[in-house]
Amino acid sequence: MKIILINRKHGGSRSIELGRWSRALLSLCCLGLPMGMVAVGYLAGESSEPRSVRGASLDSMQNEFDRQTRELAALRSQAERKLQVLTLNLAGLQARMTRLDALGEHLTVMADLEEGEFDFSQPPAVGGPMASEFSVSYSSLDIDNQLNSFEAQLTDREQQLEILGSLLTHRKLDEQTWLSGRPAEKGWVSSRFGQRTDPFSGQLAMHDGIDFAGKEGSNIIAVAGGVVTWTGTRSGYGEMIELSHGDGFVTRYAHNKENLVKPGDFVKKGQTIALMGSSGRSTGAHVHYEVYKHGRPVDPASYIQRTRR
């Protein structure tokens, strides 16, 4: 193989004769160089693609991790707010339960229930076999429903207990203001209501009450609950107490040795209000008991034996 080299500057030429091995080497260089460059480019592309794939995968995993972190933070914040709301609701329900316990104990006393029958200081007695075959799990929605149901039950119980308390209060007030019984713990009827012979003048006169004779210093009790409207010495009555019971009823207790209450005091039925004596216009230790209805004296006998229907 002959190669002719031309020199443009001098216009001359030069020929080179290549042997078989020279031709083979030249062919190898001409063909091998492009193929090598292609091979190097291919290998470089092959090595860079895994790196780019790995980088994309890492970026995707980082983005997913960041997203999950944000979601977890949002869920944690939501759970904390939910817990705060549930805590406040539970505190409110506990306060209402405490109020119901106090009201229940008050009603138990008012109703004179047997001791221990309703003990509001202890949790309610419950029981039953273990339900091992069943398991119950509650979601937050179930807890909300349970709290709402419990709150509705508490509201209903509060209303019922308040109504019952009101009824019992009125019943107690009625019992307290109900005139009945004797004004003395001990003693006997020495003079009744109506016309009688006056022990001092010997003439016929109206006696507006009933006299109960007894031992000096014995207890005089209120026949009904009421307010003390007057105490002190009154002509003919000696030491006297006057009680107002409402509905137009007034009672008087006279000839006392000592008055134990003062105006404005509230007394209960059966409470000791004075000691029996013989003050005023009296022949001996006794209590003069009068009943007034709308300002007019009435026979106390009908109220001494009086019973509720």
Pick out its properties:
single chain; alpha+beta; ten-stranded antiparallel beta sheet; 43% helix
Describe the structure.
- This protein has 309 residues and is an alpha+beta fold.
- Among the domains are: 2-72; 188-304, Glucose Permease (Domain IIA), CATH 2.70.70.
- Helix content is 43%, strand content 25%.
- Strands 3, 6, 7, 8, 9, 10, 11, 12, 13 and 14 form a ten-stranded antiparallel β-sheet that branches.
- Helix 1 packs parallel to helix 2.
- The radius of gyration is 55 Å and the shape is rod-shaped.
- The model has no long low-confidence stretch (mean pLDDT 77).
Question: What does the secondary structure layout of this molecule look like, with pairings?
Answer:
Layout: E1 2-6, E2 13-17, H1 20-110, H2 140-177, E3 188-191, E4 194-197, E5 204-207, E6 210-213, E7 219-221, E8 226-234, E9 238-246, E10 249-259, E11 266-267, E12 272-276, E13 286-293, E14 296-298, H3 301-304
Antiparallel strand pairs: 1-2, 3-6, 4-5, 6-13, 7-12, 8-9, 8-11, 9-10, 10-12, 10-13, 13-14
